[in-house]
Automatic annotation (TrEMBL):
Residues 310-436 form the Mur ligase C-terminal domain. It is an enzyme of class 6 (ligase). This is tetrahydrofolate synthase. One of its GO terms (cellular component) is cytoplasm. It catalyses: (6S)-5,6,7,8-tetrahydrofolyl-(gamma-L-Glu)(n) + L-glutamate + ATP = (6S)-5,6,7,8-tetrahydrofolyl-(gamma-L-Glu)(n+1) + ADP + phosphate + H(+). Keywords: ATP-binding, Ligase, Magnesium, Metal-binding, Nucleotide-binding. Signal peptide: none annotated.
Length: 457
């Protein structure tokens, strides 16, 4: 595994920056599916996760937005809510939130100093060093269980489900938003394999909600839920919704097994209607079976006020620039459908930067038909996709599509690419930045002049 980077850090850590640098120094240990290291860490601290109520959220797309809906509605209804999500858009502390506020820097430093010696000890054992995500997960559990004591924790998986570090917990309810082709290098090459990994968060007797739509995926969710004695609520079977965009907001009519309700949303895109319906079903289970008191007026206010950065987010008026972190085929399909519904424009100028491990062909096949000018760039990240390779792929696809009028520009420096996008987007046009969230994070910080922005997984 090479040099144990955790040993190079002087303990105790002296500052917030030192703590984040130490946690990020574990990134080279990669993503190592398995729960042994996190279990060892939690045993050391007396298994504090057992004192918390979790809502476990998995899925290919829509996890972050669903977490935002859950956190916003529960907080509005008077509950103290913890939320653990990744990656972060602005700052490392974004991952760990209590009632919508980031963990204080001094608290993160204090918890990192408690965890660091344990990490060092495990690194010296046969298990090898805990990863960056394992340490972040341990930090989240300690923060929620021993510092801020939320009534409920909205708990997003990092990758997959079954072998994901977050699967250490037994939740009160689980949500699997959907299943699509992403992270195939780790989760498997077929929808069925990926579905089995996501279904790995289903626990004995714990109700599970899903908005998955493919018959083969639904079959796996039903089979797993039945084997675990878990009640499954499926969109299209146990609950339904209709409605969608009307101007700059959208409203849906939700119909579940217990009641119906009209819900207004500020987050745009038809996919957000689906996410909101899944979350409403989660809340209905909490209300119906777990004595959560959720007043209708407050619940509806929570849905309307929910916000998640970098999801069809307009960050500039002149020129109009929209950010969307669509980075896989399903995300591209949702983006291609949502842009013409949510915005009116003459020309669509789109800037994209990707990581090297994604299904770019299918992504481009969804997005290219609506684009007039395509600016290909590269995120400032170690796993970036080479812009020239992306260009070769675009050229192949545009020939198949007979899309001769598409203008393609390659600008490897994302800052120059952004300047190009801004200069080419006239008053009637729309500029869109999409692709990996690592680039969305940088672009968002630049356009919103956020000087304290950090970036990372």
């Amino acid at each position: 595994m090479g040099v144990n980077l955790s040993e190079e850090i002087q303990l105790p850590l002296a500052s917030y920056t030192d703590a984040v640098d130490w946690i990020n120094s574990l990134i080279p240990f990669g993503i190592r599916p398995g729960l042994e290291r996190i279990q060892r860490m939690m045993e050391h601290f007396g298994n504090p996760q057992r004192r918390l109520k979790f809502i476990h959220v998995a899925g290919t797309n829509g996890k972050g937005s669903s977490c935002a809906f859950l956190s916003s509605t529960l907080k509005e209804c008077g509950y103290d809510v913890g939320m653990f999500t990744s990656p972060y858009i602005t700052k490392f502390t974004n991952r760990f939130q209590f009632n919508g506020e980031d963990i204080p820097e001094e608290t993160l430093l204090s918890l990192a100093n408690r965890i660091a010696p344990v990490v060092k000890e495990i690194a010296a054992s046969d298990l090898g060093s805990p990863t960056m995500f394992e340490v972040s997960t341990a930090l989240a559990i300690l923060y929620f269980a021993e510092v801020c004591y939320p009534d409920v924790v909205v708990w997003e998986t990092g990758l997959g489900g079954r072998m994901d570090v977050t699967n250490l917990v037994t939740p009160i309810v689980s949500l699997i938003t959907n299943v699509g082709m992403d992270h195939t290098d780790i989760l498997g090459d077929s929808l069925e394999e990926i579905a089995r990994e996501k279904a790995g968060i289903i626990k004995p007797g714990v109700p599970v909600i899903s908005c998955a739509s493919q018959p083969s995926v639904i079959a796996i969710l039903k089979e797993t839920a039945k084997a675990k004695g878990a009640t499954l609520y499926l969109l299209g079977e146990q609950f339904h919704f209709d409605g969608g965009l009307s101007g700059r907001t959208q409203s849906i009519h939700f119909k579940g097994p217990f009641r119906s309700m009209d819900i207004e949303l500020s987050m745009l895109g038809r996919h957000q209607c689906t996410n909101a319906a899944g979350v409403m079903m989660v809340l209905e289970v909490l209300r119906q079976y777990m004595a959560f008191v959720l007043e209708d007026e407050l619940l509806l206010s929570g849905f309307k006020n929910a916000f998640w950065a970098g999801r069809l987010e307009q960050v500039s008026d002149q020129p109009r620039i929209v950010l969307d972190g669509a980075h896989n085929p399903e995300g591209a399909e949702a983006l291609a459908r949502s842009l013409p519904e949510a915005f009116s424009y003459r020309k669509l100028n789109l800037m994209m930067g990707m990581l090297a491990n994604k299904h770019h062909r299918e992504y481009l096949e969804h997005i290219l038909p609506i684009v007039d000018t395509l600016i290909l760039t590269e995120p400032d990240f170690r796993k970036k996709m080479d812009a020239d390779s992306l260009y070769q792929l675009v050229e192949q696809i545009r020939k198949d599509m007979a899309k001769a009028d598409l203008e393609v520009i390659v600008e490897r420096d994302w800052k120059r690419a952004l300047a190009l996008l801004q200069s080419r987007t006239e008053r009637e046009d729309l500029g869109v930045v999409t692709g990996t969230l690592y680039m969305i994070s940088d672009v968002r910080a630049t356009l919103l002049h956020q000087t304290d922005s950090e970036k990372g997984w």
